[in-house]
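Design job #97: recover the sequence.
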């Protein structure tokens, strides 16, 4: 199968790539900054690479003319861009991706988004929803997965949980730590992304995916501490303080301030699955 993998040097893309190659697919990776893309030498010999920025639709024909793909993954997120332009960045990038998908006769678009089933969303989750709506209107078969926190080394949200737990014996935290989330393991996420390839049961569907447990962020911190055998005290305040919370995460974790601010604003939303049909279509442990 001929696959176009965007965001190939991102957290999800770098873990999905070897799975696709091992399964025998012809994978073309699209990266915005070629020097930052460093797959293993063995993988490098088995893939094609295109250096291209989806924020430049005027160059799409030049880079993708006369190419054909069966499936295209959209794993591009502008989390590091300023929140004031996030929606515009996402729309421009996703619009260009649809153009490329049409040029290359793609039969299925696969998109990984965030759970957005509440009415009032953060700018981060709203931008993801706007992209989802664009793909739904594209006229191309789509499969959209919506997830909360992804558990695995390298995931921004998970690294924040680890940093906070390991560095702070006592935490005085705002009320967003009482919001609920349904985390999913990275290996389960990759399995869904792989097994939906040209699976007609997943065409034109939006699936919410999560693990078996619904937890508050506070509970996740405490459970991580218990696994690492740390004693931690967490005191919740009855206020939100998004700006102050972002500075707190910036100072105590590996997240930069822009990303920290967007994550904090998103954490005011519960990200819990309300439908589970994917479990029957693609069952897994």
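Job complete. Output follows.
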């Amino acid at each position: 199968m001929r696959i176009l993998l965007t965001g190939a040097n991102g957290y999800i893309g770098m873990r999905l790539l070897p799975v696709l190659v091992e399964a025998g697919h012809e994978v073309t990776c699209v990266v915005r900054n070629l020097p930052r893309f460093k797959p293993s030498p063995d993988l490098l010999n088995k893939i094609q690479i295109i250096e291209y920025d989806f924020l430049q639709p005027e160059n799409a024909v030049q880079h993708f003319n006369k190419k054909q793909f069966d499936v295209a993954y959209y794993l591009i997120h502008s989390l590091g861009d300023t929140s004031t332009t996030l929606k515009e960045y996402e729309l421009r990038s996703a619009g260009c991706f649809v153009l490329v998908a049409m040029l290359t006769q793609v039969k299925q678009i696969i998109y990984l988004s965030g759970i957005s089933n509440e009415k009032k969303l953060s700018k981060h989750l709203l931008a993801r929803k706007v992209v989802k709506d664009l793909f739904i209107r594209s006229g191309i078969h789509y499969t959209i997965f919506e997830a909360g926190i992804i558990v695995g080394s390298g995931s921004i949200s998970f690294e924040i949980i680890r940093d906070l737990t390991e560095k702070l014996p006592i935490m005085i935290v705002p009320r967003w730590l009482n919001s609920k989330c349904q985390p999913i393991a990275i290996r389960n996420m990759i399995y869904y992304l792989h097994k939906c390839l040209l699976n007609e049961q997943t065409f034109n569907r939006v699936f919410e995916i999560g693990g078996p447990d619904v937890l508050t962020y506070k509970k996740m911190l405490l459970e991580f501490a218990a696994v690492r055998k740390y004693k931690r005290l967490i005191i919740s305040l009855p206020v939100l303080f998004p700006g102050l919370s972002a500075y707190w995460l910036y100072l105590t974790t590996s997240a930069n301030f822009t990303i920290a601010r967007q994550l904090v604003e998103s954490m005011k939303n519960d990200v819990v699955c309300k439908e589970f049909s994917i479990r029957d279509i693609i069952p897994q442990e």
